[in-house]
Amino acid sequence: MGLVIFFQVLYLSFVTAQTGVIKPLVSDSNGNNRPQLAPPPGFLPQLVVDLNADPPVLSEYLSDPPVYAPNGGTFHNGLIYWGASGGNASIGGIEQRVGIQTLDPASNQTTTLLNNYFGYYFNTIDDLFVHPNDDIWFTDPQYSWFNALTDTAPQLPAATYRFRPSTGSVHVVETSLQQPNGIALAPDLCTVYISDTGAETGSISPSLPSQGSKFNNTGARYVYAFTLSQDATYITSKRAFYLSQDYAPDGLKVAANGYVVTATGKGVDVLDPEGTLLVRVQTNYTVQNFAWTGEELSTLWLVGQGGISKVEWALRGQELS
């Protein structure tokens, strides 16, 4: 699920810390919370939360052209960057290719930056970040097939990539994780964190439709830390950082002070740079992603399957250019 903040508007896709107060605050015109893991068949709009309203208002949003099942998400140089993670026959027309797309909130226009690797279709593009040098780092697990978001079976192994829009070059940077999921860059630009949610996986057969996925508690549900090279082109020194205490680490971000925050099942875990669990924000729904808002970037909004909540605390998020 993607989650991006732009001028006090939350764009939701089907997108020493002090303990905060968490409140379910958003509902649609019928009083229902509606975020979910994947959009219903044929449903194109994203959900938008207007934080300027009191209470915040949840509504549908449709870009031009529409983006089906955007995932991950970040803000960079006035644009929202999304991983377009699906596109099956239910939306009409041709199948949207999994790829990286930008949205200009001022004009409502979307642009496709990347949708293949030497002609092979990407699997999902689950999460991404944009380095200050404009390179886009992204994960590509196989969940779009498992969740029936695409009609094309995976053509590539699950992997993590770096894309340079200025030249169009795409480089694979990590191949050892079973299902690379969340990805985040530390504020000192020295460490890249990637989560592996291989505990949730399924079977792949081009001759059969999607068979869904199953969760195995003994499977991979780790966050790994990698050292980013000085020229920011590759990562080394893979090291285990955290084994999630609940479900698997989905959304992943790094706070301004270097603390790592990850959505793990029914809550969000906060870890120090050594991987020590400092605090957990507990919810009654599965959290998949989150974003900081407010003038001080000290309000954290959580979204997931069936819920939207916010936390007021002293842990600040990184400023996005």
Description of the structure:
The protein is an all-beta fold. Helix content is 1%, strand content 44%. The chain is built from one helix and 26 strands. The protein has a four-stranded antiparallel sheet, with no helix packed on it. Strands 3-26-25-24 form a four-stranded antiparallel sheet, with no helix packed on it. A four-stranded antiparallel sheet has the order 6-7-8-9, with no helix packed on it. Strand 20 and strand 21 form a beta hairpin. It is globular and about 50 Å long.
Q: What is the gist of this entry?
A:
The chain has 1 helix and 26 strands. With 321 residues, it is mainly β.
Layout of strands and helices, then pairs:
Elements (H helix, E strand, L loop, with lengths): L2 E3 L3 E4 L8 E4 L21 E5 L6 E5 L8 E7 L2 E6 L14 E6 L4 E6 L13 E3 L5 E5 L2 H4 L12 E6 L4 E6 L5 E6 L5 E6 L3 E2 L12 E2 L6 E7 L6 E9 L5 E6 L5 E5 L2 E5 L5 E6 L3 E8 L5 E7 L1 E6 L9
Antiparallel strand pairs: 1-2, 2-4, 3-26, 4-5, 6-7, 7-8, 8-9, 10-11, 11-12, 12-13, 14-15, 15-18, 16-17, 18-19, 20-21, 21-22, 22-23, 24-25, 25-26
The 3D shape can be described as globular
Q: Give the strand order of the largest sheet, numbering strands 1, 2, ... along the chain.
A: 1-2-4-5
Mean pLDDT: 87
CA-based gyration radius: 18 Å
Element pattern in H and E = EEEEEEEEEEEHEEEEEEEEEEEEEEE
Number of helices, counting only DSSP H or I runs of 4 residues or more:
1
Distance between the termini: 22 Å
Mind summarizing the main beta sheet?
Answer: 4 strands, antiparallel
Poorly predicted runs: 4-8, 13-34
Share in β-strands: 35-45%
Structural class: mainly beta
Number of strands: 26
- Helical proportion? under 10%
